[in-house]
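Suppose a colleague, Dr. K., hands you the sequence of a protein chain of 436 amino acids and asks what its three-dimensional shape might be. Before reaching for any lab equipment, you can write down a predicted structure in C-alpha cell form. Begin with the sequence itself:
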Amino acid sequence: MISIQTNGALGDGRTVNTEAIQRTIDVVAQAGGGTVLVPSGHFICGPLALRSNVFLHLEAGALLQAHRVIEGWPIIKDLYPAELNNGRSSDAGSVCHPFIYAENSSNIGITGNGIINGSGEVWWPHVKTGKIGNRRPRLIVFAGCDNVLLDGFRAENSPQWTINPVCCENVVIRGLTVFNPPDSPNTDGINPDSCRHVRISGCHIDVGDDCITLKSGTETACRPAERRACENIIISECLMLHGHGAVVIGSEMSGGVRNVVISNCIFNGTDRGIRFKSRRGRGGIVENVRVQSIVMDDVKTPIVANLFYVCGARGEARVADLHAYPVDETTPRMERLHFSQITAKRAHHAAVFLYGLPEMPIKDVMLNEIDIQMSPDAKEGDADMAIMIPKMKRRAFFARHVSGLSLCSVKVEGFEGPFIDAQDCMDLRNYEGGNI
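The predicted structure, expressed as C-alpha cells, is then:
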C-alpha cells in the first residue's frame, strides 16, 4: 500500500493534488498493481484515471474532493463507449471527464470508509439556468472494465450521475452511502449500463433523481448488432430515500435488460417504487425480472411499467400516439415481470400502473402477496410521465394494453374508483384462477 502523500499530496483542504495522486496511481500500476492509500485529511484534486490492478483505498477520515473550478475541466472526445455521451455518439464534444474514471481495465476498485465529494454545488446552478446542459462530470465511471469492486465509502454531491459502470463485467457494489440533495438535477445514485454480472447490496441511497437504474443504451448510441444487454443483476438489502424512482429499468434499454432480482429493500419517499419505462423507437426487451420482499412508505406509485414514457421526447408524435404502429426492431417490449411479498403504505397516485403499447402489450405480469394502503392525505398527480395520462389520486390498478395479469393475495386499501381499471387487456386472472 502506497500513500498519496509519498508523492507530495497535502490534505490541507487547499492544495490541488491532481498530479500527486495520479502519479501515485501510475507508479503502482507500473509496478504490477496494488493499493493507493488516501489517508485521513481533506484532499482536493481534479479528474483522476484509475489503472488495471489498482485499488484506491480511502481511510476513515479521508475526504477526496473535486476542485471547484468549472472552467478548464477536461472534455473527452470520442469517449468509449458511446452510451457515456448521453446516447448521442455524434456529440462527442459534450462529455466532461468523470471525477474518477477507468477504461478497459481489470481488477480495479475503490474501497474504505472515507468520502468522495464531487463539488456538485458549483455545477447545479448552471444546469438549472440552462447554461451548460449535461456538460458536467459524473462522479465515478468505469467503462469496458471487468472485476470491479466499490466497497464501503460515501459518495456525495455528484454534479450528475454518481456511480456509473458501463459495459463492465463482474461488478460488486456493496455498503456504499450515496447522497445528493433532493433538488440536485439528474444526480442518479447507481446506474449500471450494459453491464453483466452485477451485485449491488447493503447500500444507502438518497439522491435527487433515480436511486438505482439499469440501462442498456439508446437507439442512437450504436448499431443494433453492437448493443449490449444489461443482464444478470442482483439488487438486495438496500435503503432508498427520495428521488424519482427507487429501482428503475430504462428508459435507455435498446440493448435489453434481463435476468434481474430485486429483494429485501426499503423504499421511502420516492416518486415511484419499482419503475419500468421506455417508448417507441427505443427497441430492446426487458424480461425475467423478479421483485420480492420490498417495504415502501410514502411512495407516490409503488409499481409502474410504462411504454409511453415521454421525458426527453416531448413533441414526437409517435411517442404519445394511442394508435397501433407496425412492430419492428424499434418496438420496445416488457414481459415476465413478477412481484411478490410487497408492502406499501401512504401511496398517493395509484397502487399499480401498467401501460403497454396497443401494438405491443406488456406480457406476463404476476403479483403475489401484495398489500398496498393508499394515503388518506393523497395528493393528485402523474402516476408516471406520459402526456395522455390523466392526473390520479388513490387509484388501485390502472392497466392499458396488458396481456397476462395474474393477482394472488393482492389487497389495496383506501382506493377510489374501480379496483381494476383495465382497457385492451387480455387474460386477467384473480387469485382463484378465474377471469377478472
